[in-house]
Design goal:
7 helices, mainly alpha, 0% strand
Length: 201
Amino acid sequence: MTRCTARRRDVGLLLLRLGTGGILAAHGTQKLFGWFGGHGVEGTGQFMESVGYAPGKASALAAGIAETGGGTLLALGLGTPAAGAAAAGAMAGATAVHAPNGFFAQSGGYEYPGLLALATTGLAVTGPGRLSLDHALGHRTNRAWMVPVALGMTAAATSVVVGLRYRRLRETEERDDAQEALFEEEGYGEDGFEEVKGYEE
């Protein structure tokens, strides 16, 4: 690789890190502090609970820390394998929420979090380039062995969290179906009031 090509790659990685990391950090501060029109831990926790991530507040904290911390570290180019993996895990969790709506963002799909997950995983694998704190510090927190370890641990943890979410949603759906069937069996309408046959206004 020529010096010019290496310089171009480093500048490209810097731009990708700054853009991706900055976006993630901004999203994370919405969850943690309510900045940029966000809802903070309490509001985000309620949303997390409503989409199956429980306990909601702990889930909001975990997502906010992964996005804010991972995004900031990616932008700085510090601890790139762990930072990229943490951010990718948070985006994988968001992708699971949007997946039922299809791919495109205009219909509420997973296009946007999926793209961020791919970008952060790519940065974790590729590394931050020479225009980074990792390079300045001799890559102490950017060793080759850290990449599979960080991504493997994140993938395992994310699989468990997303799997538990799907189980909660399925149990809730089954419980709602059972209650609806019970209402119908006992002669109640959809509004929960007993239907009186032969009565007309």
